[in-house]
Structures
1.
Amino acid sequence: METAPAAHQPHWDAALRAAGRRVTRQRLAVLGVLERTPHLEAEAVLREARHALPDLTLQSVYVILTDLTNSGLLRRIEPPHSPARYETRVGDNHHHAICTSCGRVEDVDCAVGHAPCLTPSWTPGSRPMTIHVAEVLYQGVCSDCLGLAEAAAPELSS
Amino acid sequence: METAPAAHQPHWDAALRAAGRRVTRQRLAVLGVLERTPHLEAEAVLREARHALPDLTLQSVYVILTDLTNSGLLRRIEPPHSPARYETRVGDNHHHAICTSCGRVEDVDCAVGHAPCLTPSWTPGSRPMTIHVAEVLYQGVCSDCLGLAEAAAPELSS
DNA sequence: GGGCTTGTTTTGAATTACTCACAATAAGTG
DNA sequence: CACTTATTGTGAGTAATTCAAAACAAGCCC
């Protein structure tokens, strides 16, 4: 019998090697968690990963998330007023919608083809830059929170 | 003669009153600084505002920036890996480009009409939200940094 | 135009999210 | 299996921002 450290998809194995990184249980755990439930923040990743790896530390999670992001295996999302979130969906230029009430993040495909706003029209007086990426962040209210708000709006007491 | 606290545009006076806020020297200083030089972070606002108000504190600047943002007199920009920045240009839905090298921010008008991507196409499997605003953040390299990079690329010594 | 009320600012400490230095550990290699 | 070196763990540190409570000052009343 082998060590069989939880069920880890072999493709993460290959992806790590392809990125020139060693295959460790910690990295596989983090990748597995984020593949299963995207858009988690570091604390939540730790919480989930500890089911498989009880001794994993928050600092290690930070190191791993940063390293895997730099390696191109993860993508970091940084919504306002929220710690950074991570996802395994990389390589396409999809965007995100965040609920201003509960903070939930959903994926949004690019609405206007594959590179919607990569040719900005500069405000007069500004000095143009060479643009590499354009990220669109939608802010709104998710269906759950909308329902809650409507239910709570009539009477403000409770 | 009056107290004449530096040259403050009377329109901020009116704007503050219209927002139901008291007109204080601190707020006028902050608004004046940001009107003159947009996209400053809190520390820089303090530095500039202290020319007129030497005793102003950083915490007050934070309180003022937050309050004026909530009152609709300022807009907050939160670029990744950078403290928040503020500007007096509110009420239009313009966007921003940030130089990944020096952090400079430039204004970008909306490329595709006045509400470019307000109708997102949801990724299959995601739960749609009611979108209120769509912010586009362009990341690139400004002309200055591009020049520097080209000049420095050949020899890495100095 | 002096006092009063209440919104603002200041002071000082605390918090959140994250980073760093260095020691301990364990992948991968021969 | 031993060895090298990437990776993780430990403990402390930092940057940006927030909070509680006291000091202050705008704007209103007269």
Note: Confidence is low (pLDDT under 50) at residues 1-8 of chain B.
2.
Amino acid sequence: MPAPPPEGGSPAQGGPTDHTLQITNQRGYGYHTQMNVSSKPERSRLSAEDWENAALHLIAEQGVGALAVEALARQLGVTKGSFYWHFRTRESLLNAALERWERYGEREIISQIEEIADPRERLPELFRRVAHELQSHRVYAALLKALDHPQVVPVMARVSQRRMEFLTTAFREAGLPPAQALNRARLTYAAYVGFLQLNFTLGLPRINHEEFDAYIEHMIATLIPG
Amino acid sequence: MPAPPPEGGSPAQGGPTDHTLQITNQRGYGYHTQMNVSSKPERSRLSAEDWENAALHLIAEQGVGALAVEALARQLGVTKGSFYWHFRTRESLLNAALERWERYGEREIISQIEEIADPRERLPELFRRVAHELQSHRVYAALLKALDHPQVVPVMARVSQRRMEFLTTAFREAGLPPAQALNRARLTYAAYVGFLQLNFTLGLPRINHEEFDAYIEHMIATLIPG
DNA sequence: CGTTTACCATACGGGTGAGTATGGATTGAC
DNA sequence: GTCAATCCATACTCACCCGTATGGTAAACG
């Protein structure tokens, strides 16, 4: 068996690679490519992280169901032979991509909000920032529609649980008694999730910018005590 | 070509059949079956509506992606030969099922709510009834996760639009000025949609009955003016 | 009672996508 | 430069599922 070692964790591990979960272009602009301006995408060697990023990119655009290895390979300019060197199976890619997303996609906002001194200003600031960075929540919205998939359920459970706890303490710090703070967090988070669903794939709240801002302010006035 | 006539609208149309969108058992307890208690499901002839109901049943349980004709046939105790007599293609079944759901699943609640005399009592009543009949919204929750499917988008757009308008007028009748009523309706509907997502497939708000009722009352107190 | 019509089974063709086998090409170590 | 490790291409198998073709059976009608 001269088969290469496509282990679960993949051979490439450790090292000072840049971990910032950039789901931008297909390839991460390789290290030393020949800088050709031809139509073909730049060629270099791929790593497992490249596949994970491409997978997250595809999930954000077309959902978990569209995650096919041959489609990904075409998009990356290679064939399946490359994929099955880095990953054992399609599920392992999904797991790795989800794990990666959970790790590096968490403290985008929460850590920034926690630095705000006045607790009463945190929630309005959180609402406004989330509303103006909806694009970064496309993976979450796509995963929300794939909750029938057994692999995404635990990830989403953990992420939603953490966000819910953050919201609950924020509402407590804003002056609500504990029981009300928990329910208000549930309501707020449900409104957030529902808005993602209704806004992305369905384009239901067909509203322009200023109307959207007015909606956000209405949310703030309705949900945040003060 | 001795091929039978599987037209779009299907041959069976009109007639005093019971239209109540019952997504209960696999077969609708046929007209004159032999009432056997054997393990095999009761045998009779199937109609297009039986297939549509079974399709909605399957969609509610496993999502739109799991709607396969052979799986449905197995579940109904027949083979594909039966299906392709009633329907021309798989898409036509989906369209028929969605159309059926849109028609008969609409005025379950709205018509009942409209009969309430006092407008200020309508919204709390609506909230409580919807909260205690979540099971009938499983199809809507499943369709919500299939918004990348082109066939479900127009249906969901129409249904959501109607419900949004109903909510908007209800909030106006409850005393809110028009602009605020619209935004409050958006917020309320987003909370409804998000709760469906977080509750069904993800079991996130792991709360018992009295805690759930408390949450509903919190929603009423927070979102409904007065 | 026989014939037509409605409904279903069986068997097949075709397309898609996951996973495997294996050899070739590229890179880095020495 | 050589050799081994790493990465990728090609070709294949297998399973699943849509749709078709066609013959069979039970119900409806005369």
Note: Chain A touches chain B through 41 residues (CB under 8 Å).
3.
Amino acid sequence: MPKTPRNKSGPKRRSECPLNASVEMLGDRWSLLIIRDMMLRGFRSYKEFLECYERIATNILADRLRRLTTNGIIQASPDPTDGRKLIYSLTAKGIDLAPVLTEMVLWAAAHENTGNQALVRQMQSDKGKFLAGIRERWENGGGSRSGNE
Amino acid sequence: MPKTPRNKSGPKRRSECPLNASVEMLGDRWSLLIIRDMMLRGFRSYKEFLECYERIATNILADRLRRLTTNGIIQASPDPTDGRKLIYSLTAKGIDLAPVLTEMVLWAAAHENTGNQALVRQMQSDKGKFLAGIRERWENGGGSRSGNE
DNA sequence: AATGTTACTTGCAAAATGCAAGTAATAATT
DNA sequence: AATTATTACTTGCATTTTGCAAGTAACATT
């Protein structure tokens, strides 16, 4: 029987829709969680991520941090008090993901039984203020640990 | 030498943060693209998805449609004019993903060279109106392609 | 110099994925 | 009624990706 391949027809213009770019950078199991924990929990070091995600493999974590850095979402700088450490922080591009995360959290909270109702209520009651707070904390001081957990 | 595992310490309360639920349902390469194309391009059938995503495998597409259905984001109903077909449509939960998609598109548009500037400008100029339009189209008529019905 | 910590890399088994090739259920055509 | 085509999948298998234990280089501390 002759071959009758099914997937050869569509034109598939990459990045025709902007969402393709987002999915390429964030469409996996870990990237958004890493960004969330930098943004909301103030995670800065490899060790914090490794100990937090019980199931993430060390090489996967290293790869995701590298990819997020390559994509300009986070940046790594040496710790001045300890030459061995790298301090990871969000770039402006990374901070701009706050609205995406917020909408995802609100969506899940509306349709699932999720935890951390305090955070959800804070987002719901004044979304703009919540986002402004995140931006402010990151723009001066480079992202201190917030009260959200 | 004794084992010294690295990943056994963190408590890792699942769904402590609502984002975990979102990532479990949407954190892969295809799910959000499927939702986007149902929402913005009016895709309804297995065949449309298969021909559009040049690189998606048939079993992966079937799996993602099944998972999205299981998660209550889309639903499948038989086509009354052709008993062989299934018509996929967004549920209320799926429609509620519009703000997430919108923020992702706007984020990518702000930081990458993405296509479809018309869509982006429409989102930017009046986000609320854009979202209302999507909801309206889906709430009466089950999501027509454009001005149908 | 010995020991500990950090931020990785390596090796390998297991799981997920991609792709060609089926297949059952229908529909259209002859 | 038989033939052909289409849809919406499933199956089998090779390739790729991931998870985990173990190792390591570069410091830092004692």
Note: Residues 18-139 of chain B form a domain with the Arc Repressor Mutant, subunit A fold (CATH 1.10.10.10).
